[in-house]
Structures
1.
Amino acid sequence: MLRLVKYLKPYLPAILLAIVLLFVQANADLSLPDYLSKIVNIGVQQGGIEQAVPQAIRQSEMDRVMIFLNAEEKAAVLGAYTLKETSSADENILKTYPALASQSIYLLNTIDQAEVERLNPVMGKALLAVYTIEQIQADPAKAKAMMGAGGGFDLSKLPAGTDLFALLAKMPAAQTAQITAMINQKMSGMGSNVIVQAAAAPIKAEYQALGMDTARLQTDYILRVGGIMLLLSLLTGACTVAVGYLSARAAAGFSRDLRKIIFEKVSAFSSAELDKFSTASLITRTTNDVTQIQMVVIMMVRMVAYAPIVGVGGIIRAIGKDASMWWIIALAVMILMSVIVVLFSVTLPRFKLVQKLIDRLNLVTRENLSGMMVIRAFNRQDFEEERFDRANNDLTGTMLFVSRVMVFMMPFMMLVMNGLSLLIIWVGAHQVAESAMQVGDMMAFMQYAIQIVFSFLMLSFMFIILPRAEVSADRIADVLETKQSICDPEKPQTFPAGKTRSLEFRHVSFRFPGADENVLCNIDFTALPGQTTAIIGATGSGKSTLVNLIPRFHDVTDGAILIDGVDIRQVTQHDLREKIGYVPQKSNLFSGTIESNLRYADEDASQDELMAAADVAQASEFINAGAEGLATEIAQGGGNVSGGQKQRLSIARALVKKAPVYIFDDSFSALDFKTDAALRKALKEKMADSILLVVTQRVSTIKKAEQIIVLEDGNMVGKGTHQELLANCETYREIALSQLSMEELA
């Protein structure tokens, strides 16, 4: 994947924006369990009371609270409140606190959260002590549950109606301190949140005594926090949509660019580079492999950035809720990662094999479709079906194996999550029973644990699909990083202006890359305008290889090819090929119309020019025979025209170019002798200013050629006219006599 990262640069802004949105989304998702915890703890259990520091408290109640505070705590508490006398009450305060009409109250000043956190345990413990004693006074039977703290003071022996607070206020400071110490000892195991939760009952009772609407207080809190959760959910949804759009756009654009770059790269390949990759493999790399990369880019943007944020953030927040249960998350993650490592080691080799099997299936399919007539002619349908089934079953079996292994992930993940939930509930229930944890915190911890497991699961999926994507990326990079053996010069020359005067092979030798021997040796001749230079030889003698050197489909190994005295390697490939009209050995037409195929050589050619080229190529007769003429549809590969018609259209296409050099690589083989003769005559008349190179195995086609080059095993064994070669070249004479009689050769 790293080899393709540079092609992602245009999409970095979109990816960075997506990561920012994922950070926002992750924080919103991590906040939801915390707010749920607040609804359960504060909204439901605490009646909407958020802190142990009440917003208002009656003066009489504050006096009782002061009994259980030391001097420093008294100063801190009284400093946080302002005493509001009955006489100074305004209408708004009375509306909120109706009890102010009959008695003075303390109102909480505006203080920061840090001060609230400092006062929470102080006020919470004192309020609980006051509330407990008030409950005992209301029910004397409860007095037995609280024994005097030292000095044998037994609350159960007090006379009925005794004001305990008045009694405590008159007690020596030492005894009061002992009672306070006893209360603090009983509450020592309670955390700060639990103290706040426990203090909610006395604060709620105090608010009721003040005449406040405590039901509305609870409802308002739940609606407020629920509204925040709803907004966070909407924010999460918006971020999800935006990230999905950005990731899909970046991945699709990246894939489009890759396909374009691959196509442009392959289009510039010479035959040497094309020999390294099969056509089926190049198609797979351009389609299936790029699709794999596209899918991984989407998942990487959406998961690789999101999962770590959620995982790390979830761990921090979960431990913040209860650090004692960290081992539960660690256990779940270890189990999950162990299974993922096992699955990864099992599936990785198969993932690497999948793309090769797809190549193989594409190759077999392509060969069957292109060679269907041959398969039917030899009754090999059963053999080819078995061959296709083998390739198909190999791919299917591998994919099924990988899928079956991957299917195990989901039920195992559900087992881990459900087991994790049960363990958290079991351990958390004990913590709640011991007043060391709140119910809402336990629920939040459970949700954080599930988020953490999900984040590791998302990363695991990435680790599982990355190997296949890595294979695809390497296959694509191999194509893109292939060095072209044929390149334009840094400082290209240009051909001389005017008509082309000569095409010269100057002691040319050629060998294929990696070969030990030359396939062409010391080829030396000059082709001139107005003349036909024919190249003949036995099969495999190097005829097509020789003419393919002219448009630089291969580069010469030794020697040089010159046009008008300029080495063709010193000009751009574009300028070189502008001078050449090329008709390959295997005629190839493109889907479209006859006109679109002819215009392939010159888009600006007129209708008259198209028909003139068709006349020379002896194609106008069958073109005009059709009802649609030049607009006649051509199927893919020219499948709806005969071999001879395909050759004539290919020749016409080359002639439309009006090039100074024409190469006909065995382009008359499908023509009958009459059409062949008419075509050669028309070429001689209409292309008098062009250099014609004709590769053929028909002696009759080249009898009148001004120059014939005879090849044998890559060596030029003869050069001259027909009559000269009959007299001087044994190889040519053998070829000629194998085709024509002595009378016909004369």
Note: Residues 358 and 489 are 38 Å apart (CA to CA).
2.
Amino acid sequence: MVKEKSNSISNNFIEAVCKRLADNQQVRRALPVWGRVHIDRQLPFLCVYRQLNEEDHSLSERLVTVEASYLTASGNRSLHKPLALLVKNIARTLKESFGSFLIVEVWIMPEAESVGNLLPYQPVFKIIRPKKAALSSTIETLEKSLKKIKLHKQPAIVEVDIASKINPPSLPPIITPEELKQIGCHYIGIGVRPVYKNEVSLQVFPLIRRELMRKFAQALKNGFFQFTHTHTTHRPLHYQSLGRYSVVKAVWEVDRQLAETYNGFDFLLQVTPVNSDSAWTAFQKSRFERAPEFIYRPIPIDPSLAKRRLYRIPLERIEDPTLAQLFREQQLELDRKLTLLIDRGTPRFIYGSLQLYGIIDEPLLNQADSLLKQLSPRSRDESYSRSIDAQTFAVRARQEMDYFRKKFPKINNKVLVREDITGLMVSQGNLLIGKQLKIPETRIEALIQHEVGTHFLTYLNGKAQPFRQLYIGLAGYEELQEGLAVFSEYLVGGLTRPRLRLLAARVLAAHRMVQGASFVEIFRELNKIHGFERRTAFTITMRTFRGGGLTKDAIYLRGLIQLLEYLKNGGALEPLFIGKIAVNHVAIIQELQWRKVLHPTPQLPRYLSDQKTVDNLNNIRNGLSLINMIKRRKHEDRICS
């Protein structure tokens, strides 16, 4: 890749750039004084931004640097002729590949040019088009896309003007109408109101700039897509495929540093008690009248120092707004988890938990209450006469992992039976099994697919992607992960009444804790009112109060409900296995796949090839209710992950 800084836009410089473009190679070259030409690959368009004031630090050029093909340059008049020659030669070279070429120059409008009585932060765009109507469909698409932009709930105002010459105020046109005709390419100008900057104090509002940049980029791609299909021989399948394929080095560095922060601690292990068995014994001895005391693992890092390193990570160097958004979300979530480690065992912990996992809203609470009422505890007929121990389950889990090793032969993740774990947990790709765990035979396959077929597989698929965040887990991923894992239990015919009651009870327990109920009060409600056995009621309550009040367990039912809604609305199941993501990331993941930044999902659970699974999935798409998803059995369990 060509990326050296040039002292001048010489003929040799222009020739080198055009030769690489003719060979469909990436160009990334710094320009004299200020600016860069970045062209990802052969594309039928170029975005141009010329800086009028070289002391302007508002970063307005980021309106175009998010695109796959852009040129930013100084507006210095001494550079005009060589710059114009560079742009003309780029246009001429790429026109040969596509039959036509579009140049879009973007500039910042003086406030005096803005129309009407505007509200603060109301976006305004002025499209300058040539007299000829050849670009009518492109202009129309661009206008509609820009009008969809809202900032601070203020809709954009878009004007379309016709001009013989297209250029920013105080600067000459890069290419004259006569030259455009000779080359056979098209030119559009777009003036943008700088709503992210105070015109008097010149103070910049970076969050507004970031939002405008992301939405403006989307509008430009829509316009490019229309132009490409109307005027060129290129036929992209999706407008997002016109985005950037390549990423700058800063992306890999940010990804690495975020991963290092994440791998410095295991949040769930740090807030899970290591003395659950002895705590249960003590609770029994107190005749269930005194809340137990929990003991936790030592925290292996200094959370405050980790925060300092976290916010030194240079996210601002990332040009790509989509990746920048994902990394910012990740930074914020890591910050919240570090705060929770600081607050572990204090009354502040519960408030951080609500920030991380969200509130228990009324619809979720009503659904949980309905399930507890409809699924009678007296009908559970639970039996442990046919169950397996932790070591036997570990053997079965390793067999399932071996199935995935055919696709991922280098994986070295393990199944570990441990004394300091209760239940089941996947941590950094390893399956941890509590030594005392007993699992009914009727639940083996369901739990295998929950832990290995979902949590472990999405870890492996995430590992196959270029970014570490896909196996670490994007911000808010746990809700979909747990919903998907529970859904896998249904798909293999293993979602039972006790299991669904358990998920509902977790929601109720979290809600009562947030209301201020004590450990003993919640335990009694689960045992006396809702009919859970004492040990099960204790485990639910312990999980709810761990760390000082963890509301995470409410996301199992909420994630399942969210997933069912997604599937009923036609959402595809397969993209959800690309890694550890949230439902709101699906569109972003698909964009990055269109742009070839992310790879297709490497492997799916083996059960998706089973016709019974397909039938169960179709039942959900056809509107099967949550209560009707359960399968009645003679032996039903109380084991959960």
Note: Confidence is low (pLDDT under 50) at residues 379-384, 632-640.
